[in-house]
Design brief:
CATH architecture of the largest domain: 3-Layer(aba) Sandwich
Bound molecules: zinc ion
Number of helices: 14
Largest sheet: 5 strands, mixed
CATH topology of the largest domain: Restriction Endonuclease
Structural class: alpha/beta
Mean pLDDT: 78
Shape: flat
Order of helices and strands: HHHEEEHEEHHHEEHHHHHHH
Oligomer: single chain
Low-confidence stretches: 1-19, 175-181
CATH class of the largest domain: Alpha Beta
Number of domains: 2
Length: 331
C-alpha cells in the first residue's frame, strides 16, 4: 500500500463530490481513503472481520470471473473480503439486485482463499443471504461513518482524505436520508450560507482568492519544511550515500535494511523517516521498498509519531484550488 502520494490523487475524490454521488464515486472515495491510510485499513478490516493483517491489498472495481466487485481487501492468500456499496434506496428489494448478489456469492465460492467474506453496505433494510462458503454480512453507511469518525488518519495526507470522505458521506444523500435534513454551509470568505450542490457552485466564485491563498500557503509551508530539514541534510546525505553504495535492495537481500533502520535511529528524528526513504526509493526494488515502507509506517504509527510531509505544488485548476483551500484550513 502507498502511504504518501501526490496531491493529484486527492482530487479524484473531489471530482466525485461536485456531482450527485454515484456508487462509483463512493467506491473511489473509500478506496482512496484506505490507500492513503494503511493502518486505518488494518483497523477497519479487524473491526469488521477480526482478521489481523499488515499485508492488505486494496482492489477497486475488481473483476473476477463474471463479477465486478466494488472494493476488495485481500492478502491474495488467506482472505478475500468484498464490499458492495449501495446508495440508492430502497435496497436489495429489486429482483435484479437480488440476482446479482446471488451470482456474486456463487462466484466468490470459487476463490481459493480460506476466508471469503462479503459485505453489503447500504442504507435501508439489508437483504439476508446465506451461503455455505462465503460469509455474507450487511453493514449500514452510518456504521461505517461512525467507525471512520472515531479513527484518525495515518498521517497528514491520510487525515486529509479521511476528513473529506467523512464530509462527503455526511453531506451526501447518504446522510440526508439518515438524518432527514440538510446542513447549512457558511462561506468563510463572504459569509453567505447555502447547502447541497450550491456549495461547489458558490466556491467557484472565489477561485482567485483561493489561488492566491494557496500560493502563499505553499511558499510558507515549503520554507518551514526546508528550515526543519536543513540541520539534518548532512545526515540524510550520509545515509543516502551509504545506501547507494550497496547493490540494489530486493527481497532476497532485504536483511540489509536492519542496518539502515539502526542508522535512521541514530541520526534522524522519526518524523523524518518517511521523507528520508522517499529519497532512497531508487535503491530498492518495488516490493522491497513497499516492505520497508510498511515496516516503518507501522512502527511510527505504533509510537504515534507525526510524520513530516514534504509540501508539493500542483498547478491548479479551479477545482483543485478549491480543495487545496480545504487542505489549508485543516493544517
Ligand atoms: Zn463566498
Amino acid at each position: 500500500m502507498e502511504t504518501t502520494g501526490n496531491a493529484k490523487d486527492y482530487f479524484n475524490i473531489f471530482g466525485a463530490m461536485s456531482n450527485r454521488p454515484s456508487e462509483n464515486h463512493v467506491t473511489h472515495a473509500v478506496a482512496t481513503t484506505l490507500h492513503k491510510n494503511p493502518v486505518l485499513t488494518q483497523q477497519l478490516l479487524f473491526h469488521l472481520t477480526e482478521i489481523k493483517s499488515t499485508n492488505i491489498r486494496i482492489l477497486k472495481q475488481s473483476k473476477y470471473k463474471k463479477a465486478i466487485f466494488d472494493l476488495v481487501l485481500t492478502d491474495c492468500e488467506e482472505f478475500y473480503v468484498v464490499f458492495e456499496f449501495k446508495i440508492d434506496s430502497p435496497i436489495g428489494k429489486k429482483i435484479e439486485e437480488q440476482d446479482q448478489l446471488d451470482r456474486y456469492l456463487s462466484i466468490l465460492q470459487d476463490r481459493t482463499e480460506e476466508q471469503r467474506l462479503f459485505f453489503f453496505v447500504s442504507m435501508g433494510s439489508p437483504p439476508s443471504k446465506s451461503n455455505e462458503k462465503v460469509r455474507f454480512n450487511t453493514i449500514s453507511w452510518i456504521e461505517l461513518l461512525l467507525f471512520l469518525k472515531s479513527h484518525k488518519g495515518d498521517n497528514e495526507i491520510g487525515q486529509f482524505v479521511l476528513t473529506d470522505l467523512i464530509n462527503f458521506l455526511e453531506g451526501s444523500k447518504i446522510d440526508r436520508n439518515l438524518t432527514g435534513g440538510r446542513r447549512m454551509w457558511k462561506c468563510d470568505l463572504c459569509e453567505l450560507q447555502t447547502n447541497g450542490y450550491d456549495i461547489q457552485n458558490h466556491k467557484r466564485k472565489h477561485v482567485r482568492e483561493y489561488s492566491e491563498q494557496f500560493d502563499e500557503h505553499y511558499d510558507k509551508k515549503r520554507q518551514e519544511f526546508e528550515k526543519i530539514i536543513e540541520q539534518y541534510i548532512p545526515a540524510i546525505n550520509g545515509i543516502k550515500k551509504e545506501i547507494e553504495s550497496l547493490q540494489k535492495i530486493e527481497m532476497k537481500n532485504f536483511n540489509v535494511v536492519e542496518s539502515l533502520i539502526s542508522a535512521l535511529n541514530a541520526k534522524l528524528p522519526k518524523s523524518m523517516w518517511i521523507y528520508l526513504i522517499s529519497q532512497i526509493k531508487s535503491s530498492f526494488s518495488n516490493m522491497a521498498f513497499k516492505k520497508l515502507n510498511d515496516i516503518i509506517i507501522n512502527q511510527l504509527h505504533e509510537e504515534e509519531i507525526l510524520i513530516l510531509v514534504e509540501p508539493r505544488y500542483e498547478s491548479a485548476t479551479y477545482e483543485k484550488i478549491l480543495q487545496l483551500k480545504q487542505l489549508i484550513q485543516r493544517l
